[in-house]
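Extended Data, panel c. Modelled sequence:
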Amino acid sequence: MTHNFTEAARTIGFVVPPARHIEKQLRQLGYLGTGLHQLANSAHGDFDADVIRAIRKIATIRNKASHEDDFLMSGHDKEGFLETFHFVDGELQARIDLRARKGGVDPEQRLKQQKDTIANWVIAGIALVGLLVWHLH
C-alpha cells in the first residue's frame, strides 16, 4: 500500500506543475475558468482543435492523477504527457509572445472580448425592456 501511495504521489508531482503552468498561460491570455477544462472552453475557437484537445488531455490526466487512487503512469505515458505539455506550452507561449510584440491583446482575443461585451449589453438591454414592460402592466 505504501508503494502505491508513493507512486501516486510521484505521479501527482509529475503531472500537476505542468498543468498549473498551462492554466497560468491561459489566464495570462485572458481566458476564464476554474480549471483547465473550463479554460479550454473559454479558449475554444481561438486555437486549433488539436491545441484544445491537447489541453483537455492534460486536464484529464491531471484530474485522474489527483482523484483516482489507482491511477499510475508508465514511462511511455509520462513521455506522451510531456510531449503534449510541450506542444501546448509552445502554442500558448507563441500567442503570449505575439501579444507582447503587439503591445497588448492580440486581435483574436480583442474580437472575443468585444463580442462578449456586446452580448452583455444586449442581455442587459433585454432585461431592462422586460422590466419596463412588466412595470407598465
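The CA atoms of residues 124 and 130 lie 10 Å apart. This feature is highlighted in the accompanying rendering.
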